[in-house]
Structure formats: C-alpha cells, structure tokens
C-alpha cells in the first residue's frame, strides 16, 4: 500500500519509503514554506513515509 | 530527526540555527525569541495594556497566545471587514472568537458594515485596490479602538518573512521613505496615535505555523483572504525562501542587519504635521483623514462595489 500526500486540496500517492524532502522536491516546494504532518504528528523533512501514511503539507506562506 | 536538546522526536528542523527541536523545546524557544524581540526593540513592558490585532490566521493567534503565555496583558481586536467571498470574514471571525473563548481572553469585535454602512469591498473605487483600502480601514479602526480602550500599544502578527519580504521590495525600488520607517516598532507621532509593534519579527512563517499547530490553535489555514491572491509579497517570500534553502539564516541576517544600519535612512523620514481630521478627530495629513475620505466618497456615490 502506498502513502498519500495531501497539498492544497490535491491528493496524490507516493511509494512507501519516500522521504518528506523528496516529496517537497517533486512538488517544487521549499521546506521553508510548508509544515509536514503525518496524522496528528508534525514531522521533519527526513521522515520516511510508511505504508498507509497520510502526509499533509500545510502551506505556511500567506500573502496580503 | 532527534531534538538537539533532549533526544526526543523532533517536530522542526531549524537549519538557520542548527537546531532540531521536540514540541516542548520548540515552544520554549519560540517564547524566548518573542521575549528577546520585545526586549531588544523595547516593544512593551509587563505593565503595558496591549491590543493585539487578530485576523483569525496563524500569526496573530500565535502572537496572542505567546504574549499571554509570557504574562503580558493582551486583549484582542477582530475587525470584521465584511468580506463575503468564500465566507472569509465569517469564518475567520469564528476562529478568533473560539480562540478567545477557550482561553478566557477578551476579544473586541469591530464590525465595519454595522458601524459605517460599508464593507471593505464596497469601499473600493476605481484604481484603488481592495488591499490598499483595507489597509487604511485597518489602521484607522485599530487606532481608534485602542485609543478608546486606553491601551498603550498595538501589536500585530507580522513575522520575519513578512518583514524580510517588505524590506526586499522596498530595497528593490529604493524606497528610502519606507525604509526609514520599517521596523518592529513604529512610534506614535501624535498623542492620538499608538505605537505599533511586531513581536514575531524574529520568527519565520514556518515557525509561527508550527507553533500554532503544536499549541492546538485552530486557525484559518485552508482559507486565505480572497483578495490576497497573486500578491507581490508572496513572490518576494518565495524568492527569499529559495535563497534560504541554499544559505540557511539569510532571512534573519538580512532583516536584523538592516535594523542595525537603519539609521542610515533616518534623514528620509518626512516630518509629520500634526493635524486632526475634521470629521473623526484622529490625526490626518490633510483636513480629512484618508479613512473618512473613503467613507465620504462612498456615501456620495451611493453605489456599492463588488462583494
Ligand atoms: S488580503 Fe487585502 S483585502 Fe484581504 S485582509 Fe489582507 S489587506 Fe485586506
Ligand atoms: Zn527536546
Ligand atoms: Zn477622519
């Protein structure tokens, strides 16, 4: 079973074992601009996704 | 990654400081940095009555939470701008109210439409962007409520990314007047104005978001003001974050070194004439202040803008 990545309303799947910083690179995001959460836990960019994990990337940058 | 201080699981990696921190040590450090900014830039004292401008977003709620944790006497002010698109004003007001209620804090709510008959999008005219109208409204209302409530200082949730991105855009245009004025504390240049302070100015946007999440603050994170899309500030922030990726610590260094050398721009500050608005009595640059001018024009036209 792969892991799920949620970002700004979009949902995609990645292979288990992918690191959070690899996901960020895939999406072209800077680690400065998002907070990564798996379930209710905040994780650092070296976290490796496990089967069934739901990674939520919370956009931290606001305009205005 | 493990916490540099205690070895527990880290929730954030602060590359600029070569620190990975667990929840507990992150919150501890966050509060220390807020206190450091308050002292270093003389923002307020423990006896100050502080009014925090609260939008329902992460920064202002994190600020209110942190000031309260540090033992400052801070009330909140929510300005209902009457933005109906995506229910922005309604939802953000609910977040601010729920936060205040859970923590037993006092939130003042100012409803622009009820007080003056116009919501922010209805005050927009011609080339005047909503955000510039909104800025005039917020400055006026914040000051008026703070004055009437006998507060000593107004605090806003501007963080390091906000400050560094404004600094970058002011520098790119060499706007010396704005450069002379930028900083964590804006002095009151008239007895009817309050000093404005930014206690989160040494903390990044990622840090304030992390703080809000760790502290269980329910803020509007999926929802942005519908008028903020495409703001140049976002482009500036993204550019700075790209540099930060390569050289961690650049944003903080850029901003704090600017503050050290800011006096170089001091001569550019125009001397402010202390005139009072004929209509509302607050300080103005002409006979009528820009807020009252907006209202008067809208009343004359009678028509409503797009909300
Ligand atoms: S984005 Fe513009 S209109 Fe929306 S709250 Fe901010 S200043 Fe006001
Ligand atoms: Zn720790
Ligand atoms: Zn006026």
List keywords for this structure.
heterodimer; A: mainly beta; Ubiquitin-like (UB roll); B: 307 residues; alpha/beta; Rossmann fold; six-stranded mixed sheet; two-stranded antiparallel ribbon; 12 helices; binds iron/sulfur cluster; binds zinc ion
Descriptive account of the structure:
The complex is a heterodimer of chains A (64) and B (307). Chain A has 64 residues and is mainly beta. Helices cover 12% and strands 38% of the residues of chain A. Chain A has a single domain, classed as Roll (Ubiquitin-like (UB roll)). Chain A is built from one helix and five strands; from the N terminus they run ββαβββ. In chain A, strand 1 and strand 2 form a beta hairpin. The model of chain A has no long low-confidence stretch (mean pLDDT 93). Chain B has one domain: Rossmann fold, CATH 3.40.50. In chain B, 46% of the residues lie in helices and 11% in strands. The longest helix of chain B is centred in the middle third of the chain and has 19 residues. The radius of gyration of chain B is 20 Å and the shape is globular. Classes of the chains: A mainly beta (64), B alpha/beta (307). The structure holds iron/sulfur cluster and zinc ion (2 copies). One zinc ion binds next to helix 1 of chain B.
